[in-house]
Structures are given as C-alpha cells and as structure tokens.
Specification:
about 650 residues, nucleotide-binding, Poly(a)-polymerase, middle domain, Poly(A) polymerase, Beta Polymerase, domain 2, metal-binding, single chain, RNA binding, five-stranded mixed beta sheet, Alpha-Beta Plaits, 13 strands, alpha+beta, transferase, 22 helices
Length: about 650
C-alpha cells in the first residue's frame, strides 16, 4: 500500500489509455516543456561550476580557521539540487533550486559574506543578490541565463561528503531552524520520489499538471496559490491511489479527486511521525494557527509542515473553480470531443472582469527592481484578502503573472505590474461608492515595514484603479490573446439565452451545471464518485481541524447570482448591460446599480484624507514607524 489509504483502483492501462497518453506526449512536445539533451548539458555545466566554487570557498574558509591543509582539503561540502530539477520535471527556462551543505566550522555569516562576494566577483555570474532575512534565506543569481536560488545548511559534522544520507532525521539534531528548513527542500523531494509507485508516470503527469497550473494562473506559492512542491505532492497522492494508471488517466483522476476534496482535510503522502528534536510540526490539535489553514498539503518528512500556508479562502475558491472547469474539459478529451490543447489553454482573466487594480513597482535600475519586486511580491497576497473585506467585493482575483509597464507609462523607469480582477456583487438595489483607499494604504505600509533593509530612493509602489477598457494601455497583447481563446464552457447556454430569454435563475444554474461532458461521463466516473471517499481519511485518522463553518465557501445563492451575472453580461441583444466601450461608471444589473469612484490619477500624500481616492501612490519613506505599525494591524495583525 502506498500512502495513507489503500488504492482506489489497481487496474492496468487499457489500449485507449495508452493511446491517450501518446497524444499527451505529442501535446507536451508541442508545448516545448520536455527537456532536451542540450538543456540538460547546460544545467550540468552550471551546477558543476557552482559545486567547484563552493568546495573552493569551503577550503579557503577552513584554512582561515587554521585547519591543517590536508584537513581543509578533506572536509568536503557539496551542492545538492531539489525541486523540479531534482524531480526531473523542469523545462527550458526554469530556475534551479540548490543548497550548499557545509561542515560545522563554516557559518551562515561566512556564506552571506565571503561566498556572496566570491559569487559577485565571478564574471560568469550575474544579478547576485542576497535575501538574508527571508524565512528561508537565499542567494539568488543568474548563470548562463538560468536563475539559481541557492540555500545554505550547516551540519553538525566534521566532514560532509557525497555519501552523506540527508534522509536521516538524526542529522537535524541541534541544527539552526533555518538550516532545517533549507535541508528539507532536498529531503521532501527525495521522499516524494520514494513514495510514488511509478516514477515515470508520476513525472509525466506532474509535467502536465505544472503546465496546466501555470496556464490557468494558479502557480505561485508567494502569491497564495500552490508552488511546485505542493503540486508535486497532489500528483503523488493521485499516483498512490491509482498505482498502475497511465498518465492520461492520472490527469483525469487528479481533477476528479481534488475537485471533490473536502478541504480543509489535509493531503498526506504518509503517516506523520514524531521525533524528539524540538522542531515545530504541523498539528492543529496543538497549534492554533494550523487550524486556520484552508488547504493543508503536508510534507512527508520531519518536521512535517504545511506547504500551502499562504493559500487563502479567496485563492482556494479560484483553484477549485479551475479544478471543476478542467474536469469537464477532461471529460471532453476522454470522449474524443476535444484535444489536449484545450486543457492547456490559458484561462481568461482580463476579459473575465470589468474592474481591476494595477499594482506597479518602480526602481532606478534593473538590479534594484529585482530586489524591490521580490519584496513587494512576498506581501502582495495580503491585498486581495483585505479587499474582500469590503461588502460589495465578491471576489478579488490576483493574477500571478508579472507584466512590464509600457514605456510611455513608466517614463523609461524599470517597472513591473500585477493586476487584481474585481468581481462586484449586487447590493440590494442601492448605489454603492467603493473606496479602496484605506486597504491600499495599509498594504503600502505593510510593504514599507519590510523595506527598511533594502530601500533606495526611486523604489516606489503605485496602485491604480482601472476599467477593462483602460487595459489597452497596459496589456494590449494579452487582451488580444484572451479574445482569441474560445469559451470553454457555457456557450450553448448563452446562445439559448440570447434567443429565448425566458430561463429562470434556477433553470440557468441547473443547465450550466449539466455540461455535455458531464452528461456523457462514463460509468467508471460515476463509480469513482461513489468511492472517492477512499481517498479521504476517516475522522479517527486526521487532526481535529476546528470549526469548518468559518471556512465555508460562499453560499449557493451567491454563486448562482454570480453565474447569472456572467451569463447576462455576455448577452447584448436581450439585456441592457454596458459594453467595455461605454464610459459611464454607473453599471445597471437588473434592479441593481453599482457606482465605482473614479479617481485614477489621485495620489495619497502625507496628511491626505483616506475617504475618496481609488488610485494611490506610496513611497517607502513617507510615514513614521509608529503609524506604520498601527495601520498594519488593520490589515494583518499577525504581521505587525
């Protein structure tokens, strides 16, 4: 038995499964996500250079510590990879996660001082920057166009060699917690590979799911979605439940299982175990904060941690929507109605919403922008959560993709911009004046509170409120791409609505939930629906997760209203919905009327009132520290 439960099915692939997997191979090849020998050779060359540099540095520091020369030559040290490269699922252009593991006489101070300088002085290495105060401290760099994130771990050993078994839990004894977190990158990756029944099927499935997650804009740990290790653990769990299945089948089962998963029930690849080493582990029975995690996916090595602690109710709802939509698409692929290219089509974002916030960061040079952008990105997930506290904001959807501001808007300054799509709900027939200024100000203060060590003049952050028509000045190419993407679901319902116009709300919702693929779903799927509980743990096997009521998704009524509004907004003939070309701010939806304050060009300066602007600019040196902390507590008390 693999994992926490017995398999759902041990069935071997059928001829159809094998044929579908071959067509999947062709699709992935067209998407250019399968690595080539040239890519592999380049990465091996880069890693070899880093390994040599690290060993040379360790030898130099050892000599400075007055170790005998022969001892300094033999203390070892090594560079290990983890993440997508170690799993074998990287693609061209992907970064490499690595870690320098050193013996006990080499310190973290040495790493961020002398090794950092050694990297900076090497002409083959570019954009070297240290993020020493991060939760997992890292040195970032670019070598031959490949981004490298290099961590540091110091073992309590005299020597570190290639045969050192990092899976031994006892190696963690008396280590700095930062070293433990760094080491667990390798330990988790290796454990995942040991816990899947068929590595090749796992790798191919994970390559496809990672591509899907990026195209559907749900791939980013920092921004509240899922990172690479979390997607790997979800795929590994499906492989455990269907140990003999072909990748095409595994992808279908992936969407089937996780579209029905009873979050916040955790996903685990193996039973948790306890080691008396003093490190905190994920346990909602003991840790109150763990009870608030909405989508726990637990790492399989000690100390067990939730890899998705950044996921919020908002991002979970977005991920679940993508799971459900993609399950329908997989039904079409299995029945031959669609090809694999449909599942990898980018999800619509800019044409999905009518109102947006644009969060833009500026710096004086590209190197400073990299550092400033990384800091803002690490805090950005708090803004959508804050905006959803506003009664009429039903959804605040952060697009994890970064864009470059057009030259005429950036005035030639290096910049990056993110977008948040806003879904405005009905409000009992009243006119609502939406004011985001307080939430935006708090967010800017939150960023400022983390910027004191890196801030330089010229590092700015600006937040603008936009309508869809304004996006032409920001992302014209993206708008064209999205408009060329056909609707994935609901086209027949919309067509019928435009000709008949007499469906009730309940009929529309019921019809929308009965896509052709769901009606044609096979008997095997119906069986899976009945036995899906096999993938879940019994109440005796999981931690007590506290009240589920506080984690409930929006009510069915709200979802119905949202769906109908979406359908109505696409029908121009029978419904008086404003088009994106109209300039009025007043939006009529049935008997509803929503009014958004239009103050795109205003800025917040010290002493300004916070009651009117929607567009705000915040430089990182405009408020006192005491005021920062007070306002930060409004947005995120635990951070302040």
């Amino acid at each position: 038995m693999y994992g926490m439960t017995s398999a759902i099915s041990d069935a071997l692939p059928t001829d159809i499964d094998i044929q579908l997997t071959k067509s999947l191979d062709d699709a992935l090849s067209r998407e250019k996500v399968i690595t080539t020998d040239e890519d592999l050779s380049q990465r091996l060359e880069v890693l070899s250079m880093l390994n040599n540099l690290a060993k040379e540095w360790i030898r130099e520091v050892s000599m400075e510590r007055n170790l005998p020369e022969i001892t300094a030559e033999n203390v070892g040290g090594l560079v290990c990879t983890f993440g997508s490269y170690r799993l074998g699922v990287y693609h061209k252009g992907a970064d490499i996660d690595a870690i320098v593991i050193v013996p006990r006489h080499i310190t973290r101070t040495d790493y961020f001082a002398t090794f950092y300088n050694k990297l900076k002085e090497n002409p083959s290495i570019n954009n070297v920057r240290a993020v020493e105060e991060a939760f997992v401290p890292v040195i970032k760099m670019i070598i031959q166009g490949i981004e490298i994130d290099m961590l540091f771990a110091r073992l309590a050993l005299k020597e570190v060699h290639e045969d050192t078994d990092l899976q031994q839990d006892d190696l963690l004894r008396n280590l700095n917690p930062k070293c433990v977190r760094s080491l667990n990158g390798c330990r988790v990756t290796d454990s995942i590979l040991r816990l899947v029944p068929n590595r090749e099927s796992f790798k191919k499935t994970l390559i496809a799911i990672k591509l899907w997650a990026k195209r559907h804009r749900v791939y980013s740990n920092a921004l509240g979605y899922l990172g690479g290790v979390s997607w790997a653990m979800l795929v590994a769990r499906v492989c455990q439940l269907y140990p003999n299945a072909a990748p095409a089948t595994l992808i279908h089962k992936f969407f089937l299982i996780f579209s029905k998963w009873q979050w916040p029930q955790p996903v685990l690849l193996k039973p948790s175990y306890f080691m008396d080493l003093g490190y905190p582990v994920w346990d909602p029975r003991v840790n109150m904060a763990d009870r608030n995690h909405v989508m726990p996916i637990i790492t399989p090595v000690y100390p067990q941690q939730n890899s998705t602690f950044n996921v919020s109710h908002s991002t979970l709802a977005i991920i679940q929507d993508e799971f459900k939509t993609s399950l329908d698409i997989m039904g079409e692929i299995l029945t031959g109605e669609s090809s694999w290219s449909k599942i990898f089509q980018p999800s619509k974002f800019f044409t999905k919403y009518r109102y947006f916030l644009a969060i833009t960061v500026f710096a004086n040079c590209d190197e400073e922008l990299l550092e400033w952008r990384g800091l803002v990105e690490s805090r950005l997930r708090f803004l959508p959560t804050s905006l959803e506290e506003i009664e009429c904001v039903q959804r605040s959807h952060l697009n994890p993709d970064q864009f470059v501001l057009p030259h005429d808007k950036s005035q030639g300054r290096p910049s990056s911009v993110w977008f948040v799509g806003l879904e405005i709900s009905k409000s009992n027939g009243t006119v609502v004046n939406l004011d985001f200024s307080t939430h935006i100000r708090d967010f800017c203060l939150l960023v400022k509170s983390r910027a004191h060590t890196i801030f330089k003049p010229g590092m700015d952050i600006q937040v603008n409120h936009l309508k869809r028509k304004d996006l032409r000045d920001y992302v014209p190419d993206e708008l064209k791409k999205e408009k060329a993407i056909p609707n994935t679901v609901g086209s027949k319902i919309i067509a019928r609505l435009s000709t008949e116009g007499r469906h009730s709300v309940s009929e529309l919702v019921e019809e929308s939930q009965k896509s052709p693929t769901s009606r044609k779903r096979s008997i095997e799927d119906e069986t899976d629906d009945n036995i899906i509980k096999k993938a879940l743990l019994s109440n005796d096997d999981i931690f007590v997760l506290g009240s589920v009521e506080s984690r409930m998704s929006p009510s069915s009524e709200n979802k119905s209203n949202n769906l109908v509004n979406t359908l109505l907004s696409t029908s121009k003939e029978n419904h008086s919905i404003l088009t994106e070309n109209e300039t009025k701010e007043n939006i009529n939806i049935g008997k509803e009327s929503l009014l958004l304050t239009d103050a795109r060009h205003s800025t917040i300066e010290s002493g300004d009132s916070l009651t009117s602007p929607v567009s705000n600019k915040c430089c990182a040196d405009d408020e006192s520290e005491e005021n920062d902390q007070k306002k930060l507590r409004l947005l995120h008390p635990t951070v302040a």
